[in-house]
Design brief:
mainly beta
């Protein structure tokens, strides 16, 4: 799903190979549906998501050009799966989600949120606890009940480091819904 400015940003992070031994990948294609397509793909028991993503696929098996307004692309709150949500006008588009999993013993998920008032750009930096490093991260626009916003968009979800500050995860986006209760949430999969 392209950002509002018409480009797709891809960020790659590197860690020692020992961190990602026993890595597996999973992909799921959910049933066809128009409007909001969303889902979570979980890792096998004992494993945590360190990467993932999603897209909308049309019936011919190609990436849909009818998709817009991605509102979630992040690890799950407990770190064991990957969430993705976007809107589409294609009546027969389906959500495809992928996740990369590893044991990541001792990992933790950090969540940092900020209010996302209706039609106002919001941004937030997420941080890992001292002694931890962000292996990966993601972002979602949240309703007050924790579910994804149905209408809005995400522009950035990217690691930031340097300037003597600890590693952070920067996200920004905008909600088109609740004037007071929505929030932008940065999630980081943190490892020692």
């Amino acid at each position: 799903v392209l950002s509002r400015q018409g480009y797709l940003q891809v960020t790659v992070g590197c860690e020692p190979f020992a961190v990602t031994t026993e890595v597996i990948s999973k992909v799921i294609a959910l049933p066809y549906k128009s409007s909001l397509g969303r889902g979570v793909l979980y890792c096998p028991a004992g494993m945590h998501a360190f990467g993932g993503g999603g897209f909308m696929m049309n019936p011919s098996g190609h990436i849909s050009t009818d998709a817009y307004e991605m509102t979630s692309n992040a690890g799950s709150a407990d770190g064991t799966g990957w969430t993705f949500a976007a809107n589409t006008v294609g009546p027969n588009d389906r959500v495809v989600i992928n996740v990369q999993c590893a044991p990541l013993r001792g990992s933790t998920v950090s969540q940092t949120g900020t209010p996302a008032p209706q039609f106002k750009l919001a941004n937030v930096y997420g941080f890992c606890q001292p002694g931890y490093t962000a292996l990966s991260g993601g972002v979602y626009l949240s309703k007050p009940d924790g579910n994804e916003v149905r209408s809005g968009y995400i522009d950035y979800s990217t690691p930031v480091s340097g300037s003597g500050l600890p590693d952070r995860w920067f996200t920004d986006g905008m909600s088109f819904e609740d004037p007071t209760g929505d929030k932008l949430v940065a999630l980081e999969q943190c490892i020692r």
